[in-house]
# Entry
Amino acid sequence: MLRTLGGARALGPGDFSAALDLCAADPLANVFVAARLIEGGPSYVGALLGTDDGRRLRSMCWTSANVVPIAADDAALDAFAVRLRRKRRRCSSIFGDAEQVLGLWQRLERHWGDARSVRPDQPMLAVSSLPAHGTGPVDARVRRARLDEVDEVLPASAAMFTEEIGYPPYTGSDREYRRMVTSLISAGHTFVVTEGHRVVFKADVGSLAAGVAQLQGVWVAPERRGQGLATPAMRAVVQQVIETIAPTVTLYVNGYNEPALRTYHAAGFRQVGTFATVIL
# Structure
């Protein structure tokens, strides 16, 4: 057993299977952490804190650039907060199940200071069926982005990030951000609609694990908004992801974003939970 502090311990490679099992208890909510573990293997377990009940791993908290609590009750949140109090500079956000995120932030706020933004109501949506024939058009132009389109996709990705988070994804060199965009395209996880040489719609599969694909970075070019592009494009993304990547597609969206909610509901998504995000 690793040394414990405040009821939580740093997990290690020997906890890999237990960590994946805990993620699998709610694969829709936990796909982000499950995907990171699958991508990185046992060595990535070091990014997790955990609590045990004496026989098994009971709860976890991902503690990399993002903080993500999993299956954490009040006692676990207390334990995680003790370990996290001095880590703010390493974190850009806390996200996940709303009750757990807001509970953890309540414990950390006095130590970490003000957040840039607290978004307490983010419906988590999921769809597991192809768009029904006759329910609406499917945009046949939606396709996977090509590697030779990185220069076109990158500005769209950066614009979406800046709109959503409130600051740009990089300053100075775009090398690391370009590497991330290139990686998604290489994996076949970026879907686009282009007009000429300009990306006017984009969506990424950001996390993939246990038959669940979580979408992120959904964006429509400002000049094309309100023109009926988003819903047919999202239907096409859902269709292609279910047919070629995973049988269930999820995403989460700010509860105040009514146009996005209408688009996702029209594409077949239904609410299966509530997330929250604290942007630091």
Remarks:
- The first strand starts at residue 4 and ends at 5.
- Confidence is low (pLDDT under 50) at residues 1-6.
